[in-house]
Amino acid sequence: MRSLLELIQETDGALAVDDPATGEIIARVKAYSVDEISSIIQKADAAQPEWASKTAKERANILRKWFNLIIDNMSPLAAIITAECGKPLWEAKGEVTYGAAFVEWFAEEGKRAYGETIPSFAANKRVLTIKQPIGTCAAITPWNFPIAMVTRKVAPALAAGCSIVLKPAEATPLSALAIEQLAIEAGIPKDIFKVVPVTNPAPVGTLFCSDPHIRKLSFTGSTQTGKLLMQQAAQNIMKLSLELGGNAPFIVFDDADIDAAVEGAMDSKFRNAGQTCVCANRILVQESIAQEFSAKLTAKVAALPVGPGCDDAVKIGPLIGPAAQRKVHQLVEDALAAGAIAQTGGTAHDNEGNFYQPTVLTNVTSDMAISCNEIFGPVAPIMTFVDESDAIQLANDTPYGLAAYFYTRDIGRVWRVMEALEYGMIGVNEGIVSSEVAPFGGIKQSGLGREGSKHGLDEYLELKYALIGGLGKPS
Ligand code: SIN
User: Fold this and answer.
1) Could you tell me which residue, 348 or 305, shows the higher pLDDT?
2) What average pLDDT score do residues 305-320 get?
3) Which of 278, 423, 430 to mutate to test the pocket of ligand 1 (most atoms within 8 A of CB)?
4) How far, in Å, is the centroid of ligand 1 from the Cα of 418?
5) Which of 17, 138, 334, 343 is the most exposed place for a label (fewest CB within 10 A)?
């Protein structure tokens, strides 16, 4: 693959990429025009039937090579993630492993795109289904996991026999370009998977939704943009996967192992400096243990080292940009003005760059803006509840339904609360639920469809039913 240095040396493109830890421009990459992307879509569509005509095993062998190349290039890929997205190197390496796992998983899962035979309703007819690739697909990926969100969409598309054109986030095109480079090296034809960075995303979203060659769009990003894409996609009745915003509750019951719950809250809240759609957004603690839990969490949060991701000791890197930092601070200020108390943090960090002090707020209430908006920063707001039904009511009181977490040692409560929470993913005594083997996705305004697992492959397949008649009778 081209080295990070070579990617950075591509200095004549229109899309400037900066390092969120310093604000310095580290690369300028080519930005594609809508016309160029339109002709790329046509090429992807023309190339798709040949890719689909390969056996699942042939495609799997190529995907397996791609997986091996990603793993072999762990360090340079992690360096690219850290340079453009800011997350610490150790965490970036974790993302490379996570991203590669989708390629490995779908390489195998593509071999299991089974149809079915259905017991017939008539003696001389047979009923069966087959699964076929949906065709040419488009994807729009976010900056917070610039490799894993690419592979989570591209690997199932390729395994299913589709072609795919992908627009990466404007802030993080280098990781996607590096992944594309490795895909080409692995033998994936260049028209089958193409990355198209742009400076202005809106017209590309419109193109993806209106171009008649595109049969499916997969988007990860805000609920607001998801709604717009959904309206636009209605034009072509296009299949959609939408992984949108969240407002994850993290509930700690009074029978929980409090130390385990504190660890889980650290994992869930502070992963990627709080910049994931599944990060705990509201920490709900039962009144009788609230003080102990808050004190233990505050001690850990106050000790988190903040700084540039390339520093080995750092646990919390910068936020993605100045607007993100302002938004987080505004939510904190509003909460403090409305009566919340900062146990630690509560201000931007002294460092240059887009850093925010890891923060714990207590006395938070459900009417504060911080309880209703996705924080996307290292801020843990704690509110209290009285009993189980109060916790469930507070947790479900949001239009979002992506991930929820709760800690308890009562087996009855495990089932009751798991069933009552209106969320697509539930962590029970676990602060992180993401895995290539499990279906990732939300309900309500958090989106449509699932990524990862066998369900993630189905998003790129059409189900065809055939009725075979005229079988007659044995002579
Ligand atoms: C996201 O924040 O969109 C993805 C998080 C994950 O895959 O765990």
Assistant:
1) 305
2) 95
3) 278
4) 20
5) 334
Q: How many residues does the chain have?
A: 475
Q: d(Cα 191, Cα 42) in Å, to the nearest integer?
A: 9
Active site residue 279: no
Protein residue closest via CA to atom 6 of ligand 1: 434
Dist CA 93 CA 325 (whole Å): 24
Statement to judge: residues 310 and 384 lie in one domain: yes
Q: What is the CATH number of the domain that holds 114?
A: 3.40.605.10
Residue 218 and residue 159 share a domain? yes
Average pLDDT, integer, range 57-67: 98
**Who lines ligand 1 at CB under 6 A?**
144-145, 220, 243, 276-278, 434, 440
Helices (H), 110-170: 148-160
Residue 15, H or E segment: strand 15-18
Element (H, E) at 93: helix 89-109
Asked whether residue 208 falls in the same domain as residue 309, the answer is no
Do 28 and 17 meet the contact criterion of CB atoms below 8 Å apart? Answer: yes
**pLDDT for res 10:** 65
H or E element that contains 241: strand 239-243
Residue 236 is classified by DSSP as G
Confidence check: pLDDT of 1 > 60? no
Residue 474 has what pLDDT? 77
Q: Which of ligand 1's atoms lies nearest the C-alpha of 98?
A: 7
Distance 271 CA to ligand 1 centre (A): 10
Query: Six-digit token pair at 475?
Result: 């002579």
Gap between the Cα atoms of 257 and 440, Å rounded: 27
Pick from 9-18, 73-82, 156-165, 204-213: least confident: 9-18
Question: Ligand 1 mean position to 100 CA, how many Å?
Answer: 15
How many Å lie between the centroid of ligand 1 and the Cα of residue 391? 25
Q: What's the CA angle centered on 81, arms 75 and 85, to 5 degrees?
A: 155
Is 162 annotated in the active site? no
Ligand 1 atom at minimal distance to the Cα of residue 440: 7
| pTM for this entry | 0.96
Distance (angstroms) between ligand 1 centre and the Cα of 44 equals: 27
Domain that holds residue 25: 2-244+446-465
Phi-psi sector, 470: left (phi>0), alpha (psi -120 to 50), beta: left
Q: Are 157 and 304 contained in the same domain?
A: no
**In the prediction, which pLDDT does 303 show?**
98
The answer to whether residues 83 and 209 belong to one domain is: yes
Let me know whether 240 and 255 are in one domain: no
Q: Which listed residue (85, 277, 279, 388) is catalytic?
A: 277
> Which protein residue has the closest C-alpha to ligand 1 atom 3?
277
> What atom of ligand 1 comes closest to residue 434's alpha carbon?
8
Indicate whether 5 pLDDT > 60.
no
